[in-house]
Amino acid sequence: MALLLHEKPERTTLAILTYTDAKRIFRGNQENFIDLIRTGEERGVQVYVVTTADFKLTGDKVTGYTYHFQSKRWKKEQLPLPDVIYNRIPYRKFEQLPDVQQTIQACLRHGHISFFNPSFFNKWTLFEWLNKSKETQAFIPTTQKLTSGDELEQLLQKHPNLYLKPVRGKAGKGIMKVSRVPAKVSKTRKYQLSVQEKTRSHISRYATIPQLWAQIREMVGTKDYIMQQGITLSNYKQRPFDLRVLVQKNSKGLWSIAGVGARLAGKLSITTHVPRGGSIDEPGKLLEAGFGAVGSKRIIAKAKKAALVIAKQIEKASGSTLGEMSMDLGVDTAGQIWFFEANSKPMKFDEPQIRKKSLINLIRYSIHLSRQGTKKETQIASTAMRRAVLQKSVQKAR
Ligand SMILES: Nc1ncnc2c1ncn2[C@@H]1O[C@H](COP(=O)(O)OP(=O)(O)O)[C@@H](O)[C@H]1O
Ligand SMILES: [Mg+2]
């Protein structure tokens, strides 16, 4: 009897959405996917990988890949439709493809499946979103689209250093820094351009804005860029650093801080990226050196609070459901927090604690979303029922 009464256990299914091409069965960081599958297994959530090519939401099954830990192999299978889809399409160039867009739109329109982080962010749009709210305005450096030498000159008169960044860039690619050269250093070569190369930056100087602008234009090509007030970052042993915050929704669907890491710039670099000579370090230790133990704690608390306010505003202004983002925050020499960018496809955090927390959060948030989904379905069903009853009674009344 007990068996008969026993209902099918409610198991959340989570699909990791990625892209496939001739290179591999699917793209993206497989180690990340496997870790998420394992974390799901430990918590009763079935996690599998689907590619935009295979993903058809019309039937009651989908073709996906499960991972078999013993044989260390992926297995292509027919799987139940997911309750939740986690978008991990790894590059913008894939996301922009028409058939990939079609899949994303189908996921967004689907009535019963929750889909989060639908797209990459753009540095200019992020600025516009955060500029809309009084609460987040204070954290954003002055930013404008990079359009002409005249406008560059005007902004350079207000700020001695400017960062030029591609709006769709990542990992320091295409980043430049423009600085006014103090008269005591050079009276003739008034402008300095630092271009981020592999692990160092290449420096050149110019006498006039048109000369500087010609060089910048050559570097920029047809890409969209922003120019941004340069922040004098707090430093440790003369190496500037910034904070990398991982913000994720928790089991209640509320934004929370999964962890805060720090990245120290390489000696010859204008950014703090590890592949560009930067290194990972403890935020507490780095901040303590400049602000003392109490100051360090206060700044970390302030950064966490800022990250939460910023994440909420980004989600609100984007009009989509977001489940996680990583954020690059700067701390200036006075201890003030600055927002540089947020990323909707956070890279793996190497700090073990943050890493672990991030996987658990994703699973818990998926469970939350699947429950919300069931609630939504019951709501839809009961509204439909009410409507039907109402219609019947109207018909009767006639
Ligand atoms: N306005 C700025 N002032 C000072 N440093 C900056 C500024 N913008 C970026 N940086 C430095 O460059 C790094 C990369 O910038 P970011 O906006 O995160 O671009 P990317 O997408 O290439 O990571 C930051 O982490 C920070 O160290
Ligand atoms: Mg960055």
From TrEMBL:
Residues 132-371 form the ATP-grasp domain. GO terms for molecular function: ATP binding; metal ion binding. Keywords: ATP-binding, Nucleotide-binding. SUPFAM superfamilies: Glutathione synthetase ATP-binding domain-like. Coiled coil: none annotated. Signal peptide: none annotated. This is YheC/YheD family protein. It comes from Paenibacillus piri. The lineage of its organism: Bacteria, Bacillati, Bacillota, Bacilli, Bacillales.
